[in-house]
Write a structure and sequence with these properties.
Layout: H1 2-22, E1 34-41, E2 44-56, E3 59-72, E4 75-89, E5 92-102, E6 105-114, E7 119-124, E8 128-132, E9 136-137, E10 150-152, E11 159-174, E12 177-188, E13 200-206, E14 211-218, E15 222-230
Parallel strand pairs: 9-10
Antiparallel strand pairs: 1-2, 1-15, 2-3, 3-4, 4-5, 5-6, 6-7, 7-8, 10-11, 11-12, 12-13, 13-14, 14-15
Amino acid sequence: MKIKFHSIVLALIISICTFSNLYSHTGHYKNLKLIEMDIYRNGEIIGYSNYFFKSYEDIFEVTNETQFEVKIAGIKLFFIKSISKESYQNDQLIEFKSETMQNDKKKFVNLKYDKLNDNFNIIGSSYEGIADKENIVGNWWNHKILTTNSQISPLSGSVKEQEVIFISKETLKIGDKSFEVDHFKLKSTDEELEEDKKLDFDIWLDSKKNIIIKVEYNRLGKWQYILKNVE
């Protein structure tokens, strides 16, 4: 009985440690200054997505600048330029704002946390209403994107249900560096969504540092967001 009891306790401790690591808060990022990611399409660098971190008192802020351009035979087919800012207080997202130019179309999100009702109020270019506070803004700096059942589009404010499946532990080589990573698949669960609006990403996470190393998806080509630098 003692052996069985000790085994149960050990398994419980391992489970708690694993759970705590996955659900750890923004404190993981408070010592960071920036995360830089290069954006590739079909193996060619076409832009960047960079995150800048700032902390003061009980406020934690993340600013993102994303820009890329797709050209074929010198003709510009697709262009995005976006800037956003997330603000957290004691690990709770309290505000998110973004402005995006997608070709000639303007998209935006204004999200605020309603403390009285304990939820988010969203005014976005494709959604206006309330959302559960457990939603995560769909950015690639935050490992919590892998622990939630739904995410908010950082471009338009729409809310999408998702599932995350662990694939395997792998060694990922980028340039002359190797990373021990966990490979996940993130997919939409709403089958009624139009195909071009469904989530379908492969994500590689350095679970020790809680940093996403690589994101990959296919949509009119093979797209990759690959870690360039962390400070």
